[in-house]
Amino acid sequence: FQYGYNVSVINAPTKYVQNFINQTWTERYQSDIAVGVLTLMWSTIVSVFTLGGLIGVSIGGTLSVKLGRKGTLLVNNILAMMAALTMGLSYPTGMFELIVLGRLLIGINSGIGLCVQPLYLVEIAPTSIRGLMGMGSSVFVTGGIFTGQVMGLKEVLGKEEYWPILLATTCIPAVLQLLMLPWFPESPRFLLIDRGDYEGCRKALRQLHGATDCGGAMEDIEKEKNNLEQEGSKAKKPWELLADRSVRWQLVSIMLLNSAQQLNGINAFYFYADYVFTQAGIPTERIPYATVGTGACECLTALTCGLLIEHLGRKVLITGGYTLMSICCILFTLTITFQEVSPIFPYLSMACVFAFILSFGLGPGGVTNILTMELFTQTARPAAYMIAGSINWISFFFISMVFPFILGLKQYCFLVFMVICILVAVYIFFIIPETKNKTFLEIENEFKNGRKKMGYNTDGSGLTLLTTSM
After folding, report:
1. Whole-number mean pLDDT of the chain?
2. How confident is the model over 146-205, as pLDDT tens digits?
């Protein structure tokens, strides 16, 4: 939620924060701030959140091993409280630098949260509803984006005098989690596999599943623990995981999926949304409400994906999502190109925007995180999340840097995103197995069997000789 909320909430007060920076600069140096310097300061405020996220995801996995999943999430709220305090005090103290510091802190908070919260969810979930539980991450990311858009409306906190309060509202979810999370148990898998605490694991399972239903889950965790003990049960570091050839395809898969989540064109569609709404005749003052509609659309599709994922499976949803997104890219290019031919084309463009967002929410937006959880066993999972999260944040930063140049292609920029979507869909179809209703060991064995078919030894050390009869 913190990630989604702080991505969107900064958009509404853009002009007000820039005015505050200009006013503060004038009071300090008795001259107006240069346009270039003001642009640099604003871009720093926006982009430092990404830097914070990269720092957060880099330390999140390590903290989750040292403090536990639940412990890390609780401590992480301190960063959110500090961020809210610094951003809220920026105006009364006349220090715009506090906004930069607050955005950095909430970025670190978001990075840690995006790394550790899915770990916690997947480790407490029964296998039968693991996908549904894992969708909680995507549901609340989209819910955060939508809430940030609503809070930025002028009827709520979107007026100039309220912008410090608007930025400080990031403390609210932190307070709610501090009140509720202590009543929940620590991850049973963490307690048994990482800590060797059998009694603590049983207690957590009884609290989560009930006394009569925890036996099967306990047996599954013990089986995974015994298997990992043969390989060395100590949690792996990211560089150790990168050097482990036995999980090469899992790593390649999550790196590809997490980079594609940022590079698939979703940001371009949001960027073009205002233009499309204007062309469709929506009054300028009403466009923010139409934009809120796109956020609500993505939130609803994330919820829908959560309901469908245990029925259709991960592979169908994410492959279908990328396929539909590539089709939307083609249609959107055509409708923008021929928008002056008929008054109906701007409305078709609007339909393409919503269809693309729906396709993203049903597939890549929701399933990517779940696959990152499921493709690794306990000792590798925190390091895998650190690697996947780092790739995600780096891709986020990369697309924000190259996006203006891609937009130079105008409507044809969507053909670039179409190619990306098609290539990812093909990779998923041929390489990634279905993970629905499978234990983590079964998923690992699926990849090992896949490597055998491709000519790799079970240890991933190299190619075997394949003979064929003529």
Report:
1. 86
2. 999 999 998 999 899 999 999 999 999 999 999 999 999 999 999 998 888 999 999 999
Per residue in 20-66, pLDDT (tens digit) is 999 999 999 998 899 889 988 988 898 899 899 999 999 998 999 99
From the CB of residue 25, how many other CB atoms can be counted at a distance below 10 Å? 18
Structure token digits, residue 89 = 């005090």
Angle at alpha carbon of residue 73, lines to 57 and 238, rounded to 5°: 30
Report pLDDT for 450: 66
Model pLDDT, residue 230: 66
Res 211: pLDDT: 73
How many angstroms separate the CA atoms of 186 and 201, rounded? 8
Q: Are 90 and 24 in contact (CB under 8 A)?
A: no
SS3 helix, strand, coil % of the chain, rounded to 5? 80, 0, 20
- Counting beta carbons within 10 angstroms of the beta carbon of residue 96, is it exposed (0 to 12), middle (13 to 18) or buried (19 or more)? buried
Residues 173 and 293 in one domain: no
Verify that 284 and 357 share a domain, yes or no. yes
DSSP string, 216-261: HHHHHHHHHHHHHHHH--SPPPHHHHHH-GGGHHHHHHHHHHHHHH
In contact, 377 and 441? CB cutoff 8 Å: yes
448 by Cβ neighbours in 10 Å (0-12 / 13-18 / 19+) ranks as: middle
Cα separation of 352 and 331, whole Å? 7
Which residue range forms the structural domain that includes residue 127? 1-209
Q: Say if residue 356 is in the same domain as residue 246.
A: yes
Contact 56, 112 (CB under 8 A): yes
Q: What CATH number is attached to the domain comprising 63?
A: 1.20.1250.20
Q: How far apart are CA 137 and CA 369, in angstroms?
A: 8
Whether the predicted pLDDT of 460 surpasses 60: no
Rounded to the nearest 10 degrees, how much is the dihedral formed by the CA atoms of 249, 253, 259, 260? 140
Question: Which residue has better confidence, 146 or 307?
Answer: 146
Number of domains, the chain: 2
Question: Across residues 378-390, what is the average pLDDT?
Answer: 87
Across 225-233, average pLDDT = 71
Q: Two tokens at 242?
A: 């990168």
Residue 281 gets the label, from left (phi > 0), alpha (psi -120 to 50) or beta, of left
- Dmax (CA) for the chain in angstroms is 87
C-alpha to C-alpha distance for 236 and 55, rounded to whole angstroms? 19
Assess if residue 193 is contained within a domain: yes
Are 48 and 123 spatial neighbours (Cβ–Cβ below 8 Å)?
A: no
Secondary structure class of 463 (helix, strand, coil) = strand
For residues 201 and 241, membership in a common domain is answered with: no
Digit-coded pLDDT (tens) for 395-417: 877 877 777 677 677 778 889 89
